[in-house]
Amino acid sequence: MKFFIFLYSFFLLSFSLVAGPIEKFQDRPKLIVVIVFDQFRSDYLTRFEKKFLPAEKKGFQFLMKGGAYFPDAEYDILQCMTGPGHATIMTGSYPYLNGIPLNEWNDGEHRVYCTEDPSEKTLIGTKDIHLGTSPKLMIGTTVGDEIKNAGYSSKSVSIALKDRASILMGGHRADLALWYDNEAKAWTSSSYYLKDLKNPDWVLKLNADLKKNPCDLVKPCAADMTTTASIEALKTFKLGQHDGVDVLTISYSGHDYAGHKYGPNSSEMEDVTLSEDKNLSLLLSEVEKNVPGGLKNVVVVLTADHGIAPTPESLQNSGIESGVIDDAEITKELEERLNKKFGNALNESWITMHYDFNFFLNRKTLKDRKVSATRIEDEIKSYLLSIHGVSYVVTKTEIEQKKLPPGMFERKIEKTYFPGRAGDVIAIFKPFFIEHGAATTHLSGYSYDRTVPIILYGKNIRSGVYARQIDVVDLAPTLSFLVGTIPPSLSEGHLITEAIDLP
Fold first, then answer.
1. Beta strands of 83-124 (E only): which ranges?
2. Could you say which DSSP state residue 308 is in?
3. Is pLDDT of 11 > 70?
4. Are the C-beta atoms of 355 and 377 separated by less than 8 Å?
5. In sequence order, which ranges of 319-460 are alpha helices (DSSP H)?
6. Cα separations in angstroms, 406 against 392, 394, 403, 409, 434
7. What CA–CA distance (Å, rounded) separates 390 from 353?
8. Alpha-carbon distance 152 to 356, whole Å?
9. Would you state the pLDDT for residue 225?
10. d(CA 194, CA 372)
């Protein structure tokens, strides 16, 4: 009898955790600010916490102590990188749904960048026009899109150094997605957002200032640039001052540039992170000043699009196996092997593109040589499995037939693979084996690449540190609940109920 009384009490308590008065639910935030630090492993917050600004300064410690802090959030995908990460954050969906499995892929005819759009034009600097970009290739809506779909008079702005980061978080209905063109050394956008292909005056001023004080993007000044642009957007669009809930999404891409060059355990990365702490302090202080009611009327989110592997050099004397694999050299060897077995590729190649260990077959060559794609897939797989450091190899045919590696790889492949945009053959490396070309990188689904922090702070958020693993796809539906709209169209996450403070 006592057991049933306990069980009944437990269920009452469980329901009370998510029940609250309608008045508080109806008192919604005026602004959602989503802040992403590109390549920010979850342990950056714990490793450097003693050197962060005190909580009252509104930096990392402010959010860690005052927000709902989940140190163990993750991306449940096969390959963690910028495009898929940023698309996941605001759509609440994984690549097999939102269509962004990689930063680039081959569509059977040519190389495709995840935000390219030939029907648009991109303004570079003040006069040069380049091939355009837009969110056209991303399927489904974002949190900001759904707020506008509901009919609210809201504003949505997205800022990042990387175009794909800005565009994929801003979604299809952003009022502006702004990014930095490193060639032109200027902030820019595309005709998708700026119909007259003219940068507004406040962006022209940003670019004039950058011309006087240029920045190396692997330096701490990359964070300064992003913060300055974000604050100007906050003021120009009067974010947080409209009838509906406004959205500002920001990605600090400079963290990623520095991480690739120096690695996660370098002194340079500590410097960059401490600089970002100061920039966060400046940004949130400006949000406090510019939104009526200050941060009490704002929900702030801090997270990352992926983590990073240690440098192989740092592991060489530790007894942990690691290494570097050159996919360009692998592709060269594969071409020679396929030519020898099936005949030369008739002025073409057998592999039309290799990208982050995704190998895309040349359909023209297959037709010319009258060879099935399955035979070439199997030949490539056989060779890849002979390479030291390769753990598994999956082919398009195997994925379609559900013949997948066991456990977490099966799950991650199913959540990542998108027909026509993932490779015909995909190599899965052992832990701590990376792609040639940088000090280190992030291309796996291992813990060091997939584990990121999530912190929610502000209106109707319950503070605390929560020892539960959550998925990044849980973030979008949680934000949608807080603003009173339906989740994004392909959202597959669950509400982070512990973080919601309505009682």
1. 104-106, 111-113, 116-124
2. -
3. no
4. no
5. 327-342, 363-369, 373-385, 396-400, 408-416, 447-450
6. 10, 12, 9, 6, 22
7. 19
8. 41
9. 97
10. 46
Q: Are 194 and 204 in contact (CB under 8 A)?
A: no
Q: H or E segment at 4?
A: helix 2-16
Cα(220)–Cα(385) distance, rounded to whole angstroms? 41
Distant-in-sequence, close-in-space partners of 261: CB < 8 Å, separation ≥ 6: 218, 268, 438, 439
**DSSP letters along 30-58, please?**
SEEEEEEETT--THHHHHSGGGSPPGGG-
Burial of 118 (0-12, 13-18, 19+ CB in 10 A): exposed
Termini Cα distance of the chain: 30
Tokens coding 242: 């409209």
Q: How far apart are CA 76 and CA 74, in angstroms?
A: 6
Q: Amino acid identity of 489?
A: S
Read off the amino acid at residue 330: I
| Residue 435 backbone dihedrals phi, psi, to 5 degrees | -75, 145
3-state secondary structure of 136: coil
d(CA 55, CA 64): 8
Dist CA 90 CA 104 (whole Å): 20
Q: How confident is the model at residue 24, as a pLDDT?
A: 85
Which 3 state secondary structure label does DSSP give 332?
A: helix
Site of tokens 């994984």? 94
Chain position carrying tokens 């007259």: 196
Q: How confident is the model at residue 122 (pLDDT cuts 50, 70, 90)?
A: confident
Tokens coding 80: 């963690």
The distance from CA 157 to its chain's CA centroid, rounded to whole angstroms, is 17
Mean pLDDT of the chain: 93
- The one-letter amino acid code at 218 reads V
- Tell me what pLDDT residue 7 has: 47
pLDDT tens per residue across span 294-332: 999 999 999 999 999 999 999 988 889 999 999 899 999
Three-class SS state of 312: helix
Separation of alpha carbons 99 and 82, rounded Å: 14
Q: Which two tokens stand for residue 33?
A: 């600010």
